[in-house]
Design goal:
heterotrimer; A mainly alpha (359); B alpha+beta (558); C mainly alpha (317); A: 359 residues; mainly alpha; two-stranded antiparallel ribbon; elongated; B: 558 residues; alpha+beta; 20 strands; 25% helix; 19% strand
């Protein structure tokens, strides 16, 4: 009935639109179609550029440090002063007992100066007198490095394991699936914290690998390992269902080796899933790194990361709230842009939204 | 938010400030008996009130043979007692030892190796059972059986040390402690005279518990008390409650009977939350120092409810005197010039501290203020150049918790400014001291601090700066300070039990030699702390004891 | 069905053993801390340390130590290295806070997640959907610990409000109203993350299901709108939610609420675990790991069974 189709089941309309589009544009590769859909999603594109802008900004950290703020990310300025509108202002307020024995509370770092101090302390100083803006950029570099690095490693291993498990099945699948189960059975955060803390004490010096305790490799590896099943399981599921399809049978019948089948037939078909997962897992990893660093099990001091900056700032939240608020906002903006773009990517690659992250 | 000044509490044991106390008479070697006049600062007694609600930090234990943190000590000094204790008064006199369970100060032999005590008559535990002389021996033996952190203090008692001593075998009894229940006598024999033995007997490890108390941690099964209060319940990390000891009967006249009828303690380790509770009058006392973040507010809004005190502690950067670059004296001197104590105090500790160049805290009779260097980066850089160690990498170690972390980061920053290449290692406090106490770590600059166990320079120089006591592992002289002439002087001074002015001067010279002449260490601060109260508490009754901290037994309410 | 359940349970026990052993290895083999030193304190003697090592069997080979530790854990006598507190007692003491936090937050996020998802699906393409999707996306992008700190700052520390308590846990048995008030902020902070996620999952589930053939069939058969929506669409959309919820809830109960518990000073099991890790205190770490893994594995099995029950197509062969 006419009324039913316009007022109720409005979702039908949306689905019908998508179906119509597909029907009308025949003969073009799915990637090109996806690109055209993505192009039209202004919101997703906008957030993608936001993410790129953040990355570029962080990459400019050394430039900013040398030419604008004139200080490094780990250089403290306790006890020093700087010039603001012509006057000398202490970076961290003085406190202590004066000559008559009276006590004065001190230790309040200077707030965001924006443009008033000639480029120094644009976002204020932290409790050590370090420039927050400089640390924000260097910290961003570290957070992004850990987030993207661990996403790459995690996805890579997930793909390998999923392909092996999905294609070979049998014992291989059993072993890999139990491996996934084992890692997944660990309380994720606890495992990450445990590994992170344990490794941050002395580093890792076994099996010929030598990682120093302050190295960024530790959070990168820890987060990768812990999240492999998160990506690996859904991919394995997809491969399992793909394996039964005719084109695989055809390739095998033609005499294609296992590697050939895996790389040329299976891999391309899960490529869109991988792309979406990869984008979204960068976001997850940035959040995970922030959480780990907040608990002291991620990036180690004095290296900044957005998580460590929030941890440092929480003790000063009443007198210097910007120390906590600003790094948090950066995390939210970065993760949000990745999530929005990832969503847009997913919608573009598969408008019926079959690709999901649930395990 | 996870851990606050737990490190300083954990490491910082009992902090006593012997102000300008005249300790000579109490340093052993005399037959001084203190007149047991009334209950401490008599003006505050009799002002009883029903409940004292406190917000406390987590103690390590509530078992006298085990606890070693201020959190446990400050609350429990009214619960369990030993033969000797401190006077409950404000000011320097609070460092005076007076008899508690003993009826008078001991009779000490001429050579200082034999002490004779007599217990007061009619002493009872909170469960009604009588206190026997043999309970004292049991208590000390219990400490050994439990591998208590305090047993090191008792090593001079005869029959303890050595391959067949009680410390090794834990069998039988300590031969150097002879008790007679019928006569209520306790005789303690020492292997050699110990200048600080009476202070050691006032430590919590020597508090008396009933014979037969199991030799395992009894924190959650409160041990019967001998003081005016007993521990009714303790829920670790959560709460505790003290109530009056029904069998107290003023049995220790040198101890006040206590004004609150009960003490209800809530353990909140987050110092901000603790501060908020007291600020909003939901509790009466905040044990933890007011966080730097809230100090300005506390200072302005709650000025009359806030008290600031500086106790006997020193914060210093230890430099490894045994390996380069700091085996070079000029390099060490450079670091002394590179550190700005006031900046550290302001920035890292919110202003709660006083700069120092001495190793001993002020207030000791052996303290003579040193003024040998000042903050001068240019001079520091020059000294580094002259020493020929410029460009050296320096492994800087510190705990991974604020504020110690910030202090360590400051040191690393300053080292960079004067021409070194520091590499920062921040460790969990769980492994920190054993790591820097291990020669194999090869730490070159370290954050460390010391809170006094009792008011005697032996506790400082012998424990921490005596070159003869450097060990491969478990080393307390983390800087490997080893100046032969000073070592010799410390060994000589250790044997002297009477602290005459000449002896005090010699100790002061040890301080000066080590800090100013040989530049072995970089002290920078004596840290201060706060007592914060609700509006209910009457601040006229506030008594700060240099040994017992805020004396809550003498507090009163409006 | 029964053999399936039994197989899963056996697998679960094996996983528990494996997890505990790996955790043990991580802490024994990697960091360089000697628990005896820690317990003995700074002024202890060499004799002390030797004695403590004997008492804790630290000189035994590592598999013996592991076995001894497991035995004492399950017999309830395991004590921690840093404070000699009984591990099982401490975990039990932390359970009320963790359970209160997790169950309360779970109810909130399940209810609002599903509600929000339904609304978004029903208004797909229109502004409520966009608004909800945006909020949901922001919700899943917030670091939970940061949100907690900001919430405390805004609502409990006087900038500008202070009507909510600033962290801490009050047991239900001692004061139900305070228990509730103290948990308000932690509940919402923990739930916001999940509401966003579940809302989106619910929305896409509904949108998918709407387009499935069996729904069109039902429509074609002329079934009433409401009946089709509730009986067919909703029920099918909820199935994946069940799986998700089972695993998330298990993870949260098992200690993933560590960050929330730390920020709000709720001394639950997650908080206890975080403390133990920072202290490198192995016995509580082992205890909490077993506790957490137990829940994860238990819920895995429950979810599998429930899934098979709800969706006959997915019965195990």
């Amino acid at each position: 009935m006419a009324t039913e189709s316009t007022t109720d089941f409005t979702l039908d309309t949306a689905a019908a639109l998508a179906a119509d589009e597909e029907g009308a544009i025949e003969g073009k590769s799915p990637w090109l179609l996806a690109w055209r859909r993505l192009r039209r999603n202004y919101v997703a594109i906008g957030f993608f550029f936001l993410f790129v802008a953040i990355v570029v900004l962080c990459l400019c950290a050394p430039l900013y440090a040398n030419h604008v703020a004139h200080t490094g990310p780990n250089t403290g300025h306790l006890g020093e002063t700087f010039t603001r509108n012509g006057k000398q202002v202490p970076v961290v307020s003085k406190g202590g007992f004066d000559a008559s024995g009276q006590f004065h509370a001190g230790g309040i770092p200077i707030g965001p100066q924006l443009w008033h101090a000639g480029g120094r302390y644009v976002f204020g100083a932290d409790d050590q007198g370090r420039d927050v803006a400089v640390r924000l950029l260097y910290g961003g570099l570290n957070s992004l490095l850990v987030g993207i690095g661990s996403a790459i490693i995690c996805t890579l291993f997930a793909i390998i394991f999923a392909l092996l498990a999905g294609y070979f099945g049998g014992k291989t699948d059993w072993v890999i699936s139990r491996g996934f189960d084992l890692i997944w059975a660990f309380p994720v955060l606890l495992l990450a914290i445990a590994l992170g803390t344990a490794l941050s004490i002395n580093g890792f010096h076994h099996f010929g690998i030598n990682i120093q305790s302050g190295s960024l490799w530790i959070p990168i590896l820890v987060i990768s390992i812990v999240l492999i099943p998160y990506v690996g399981r859904p991919l394995r599921g997809q491969i399992l269902s793909l394996r039964e399809k005719e084109f695989i049978e055809a390739a095998t019948a033609q005499g294609a080796s296992s590697w050939r089948v895996m790389l040329s037939e299976l891999l391309p078909n899960i490529a869109s899933s991988i792309l979406v997962f990869f984008t979204l897992i960068i976001a997850t990893n940035i959040l995970t790194e922030a959480g780990l660093s907040f608990l002291g099990a991620g990036v180690q001091p004095p290296n900044p990361s957005w998580g460590t900056m929030i941890a440092d700032g929480q003790d000063r939240i009443a007198t210097a709230p910007w120390l906590t608020i600003i790094p948090g906002i950066m995390i939210v903006l970065t993760v949000l842009s990745l999530n929005v773009f990832g969503d847009g990517l997913r919608d573009a690659l598969d408008p019926r939204a079959k690709v999901r992250m649930d395990a | 938010m996870t851990k606050r000044s737990r490190l300083t509490r954990f490491v910082g044991v009992l902090a006593l400030l012997a102000a300008l106390a005249f300790l000579a008479g109490c340093g052993g070697g005399g037959n001084k008996s203190s007149s047991g006049t009334g209950s401490g600062a008599g003006t505050n007694s009799g002002k009883t009130y029903s409940t004292l609600r406190v917000i406390w930090d987590a103690p390590d234990y509530m078992d006298p043979q085990l606890y070693y943190t201020v959190a446990a000590y400050q609350i429990n000094n009214y619960v369990w007692t030993g033969l000797l204790g401190y006077k409950h008064v404000a000011g320097p006199d609070g460092a005076t030892l007076v008899p508690y369970l003993a009826e008078s100060m001991p009779k000490i032999s001429a050579d200082g190796t034999d002490l004779k005590f007599t217990l007061r008559p009619n002493l009872h535990y909170s469960n009604g059972k009588p206190v026997k002389a043999s309970d004292f021996a049991y208590s000390i033996e219990r400490a050994f059986k439990m591998d208590s952190p305090g047993v090191g203090f008792f090593s001079a008692i005869k029959g303890v040390s050595g391959a067949s001593g009680y410390a090794a075998t834990k069998k039988g009894h300590i031969s150097g402690i002879i008790t007679n229940d019928a006569n209520r006598t306790i005789e303690i024999k020492l292997d050699h005279p110990e200048g600080d033995i009476l202070y050691i007997l006032a430590l919590e490890f020597a508090h008396v518990v009933p014979s037969g108390t199991p030799a395992t941690d009894q924190s959650t099964h409160p041990i019967p008390a001998t003081g005016p209060y007993e521990l009714q319940s303790y829920s670790p990390n959560r709460s505790f409650k003290l109530i009056r000891n029904p069998h107290w009967n003023n049995q220790i006249p040198t101890m006040p009977s206590g004004n609150p009828d009960q003490v209800v303690g809530t353990i909140i380790t987050d110092p901000v939350a603790a501060y908020q509770r007291v600020a909003s009058d939901k509790a009466d006392y905040d044990f933890q120092p007011v966080p730097n973040d809230r100090l300005p507010e506390a200072q302005s809004k709650y000025k009359d409810r806030l008290r600031i005190y500086t106790n006997a502690n020193t914060y210093y950067y230890a430099l490894n005197n045994a390996i380069p670059p700091f085996n070079n004296m000029k390099a060490r001197e450079a670091v002394q010039y590179a550190v700005d104590p006031q900046a550290i105090i302001s920035g890292v500790y919110g202003g709660l501290g006083r700069p120092t160049q001495n190793f001993l805290p002020p207030g000791y009779p052996q303290y003579k203020k040193i003024n040998a260097w000042n903050f001068d980066l240019a001079k520091a850089k020059q000294l580094v150049q002259q020493s020929g160690t410029a460009g050296a990498t320096v492994d800087v170690y510190g705990p991974n918790e604020d504020p110690s972390k910030a202090s360590t980061e400051y040191l690393a920053g300053q080292l960079t400014k004067i021409g070194y290449k520091p590499k920062l290692h921040l460790l969990s406090h769980a492994v920190y001291f054993q790591t820097i106490g291990n020669q194999a770590t090869k730490a070159q600059a370290m954050f460390t601090d010391w809170y006094q166990d009792y008011p005697h320079p032996i506790d400082w120089f012998d424990t921490l700066l005596n070159g003869n006591r450097i060990t491969k592992i478990h080393n307390n002289n983390v800087g490997n300070v080893n100046v032969p002439s000073v070592n010799k002087e410390i060994e000589a001074l250790k044997k002297i039990t009477t602290l005459t002015p000449q002896v005090n001067d010699r100790w002061a010279k040890v301080d000066k030699d080590l800090m100013a002449t040989y530049h072995t260490t970089v002290p920078y601060m004596n840290r201060s702390s706060t007592d914060f109260f609700s509006s209910k508490m009457d601040m006229n009754c506030y008594v700060f004891s240099v040994v017992l901290y805020w004396d809550w037994g003498l507090s009163c309410q409006h | 069905m029964i053999p399936f359940i039994i197989r899963r349970l056996i697998g679960a026990i094996l996983v528990l053993i494996a997890v505990s052993f790996i955790t043990y290895l991580i802490f024994i083999k990697i960091p360089g801390g000697d628990p005896a030193f820690r317990i003995a304190g700074r002024t202890a003697t060499a004799q002390n340390i030797a004695d403590i090592r004997e008492k804790l069997r630290l000189n035994d080979p590592f598999y013996d130590q592991y076995w001894a530790m497991m035995k004492s854990l399950f017999s309830g006598s395991l004590v921690s290295y840093s404070s000699q507190l009984n591990v099982v007692d401490q975990i039990k003491a932390g359970i009320p806070a963790t359970f209160s936090l997790c169950i309360g937050a779970a109810i909130i996020w399940l209810f609002f997640g599903i509600l929000v998802g339904i609304i978004a699906a029903m208004t797909a393409g229109r502004w409520p959907d966009s608004a909800i999707t945006t909020l949901a996306l922001i919700g899943i992008s917030l670091p939970v610990f940061w949100l907690g700190l900001i919430a405390r700052y805004l609502f409990a520390e006087g900038h500008p409000f202070s009507f909510l308590p600033d962290g801490g846990y009050v047991p239900f048995t001692s004061n139900p109203w305070q228990w509730f008030v103290h948990l308000l902020m932690p509940w919402w902070v923990l739930a916001i993350l999940f509401i966003g996620f579940y809302g989106r999952v619910m929305r896409s589930n509904i949108l998918d299901t709407i387009n499935e053939d069996f729904v069109r069939t039902a429509k074609a058969k002329g079934l009433p709108y409401r009946r089709v929506m509730v009986k067919h669409v909703l029920r099918n959309s909820l199935i994946p939610i069940v799986t998700l919820f089972g695993l998330d809830f298990a993870a949260v109960i098992g200690g993933s609420a560590i960050l929330t518990e730390t920020v709000f000073d709720l001394k639950g099991v997650g908080w206890y675990a975080a403390q133990a890790v920072q202290d490198l205190d192995l016995p509580p770490i082992m205890g909490v790991t077993i506790y957490a893994t137990f829940f994860i594995v238990l819920f895995s099995v429950i979810v599998d069974v429930l899934y098979a029950y709800l969706d006959p197509r997915i019965r195990p062969t």
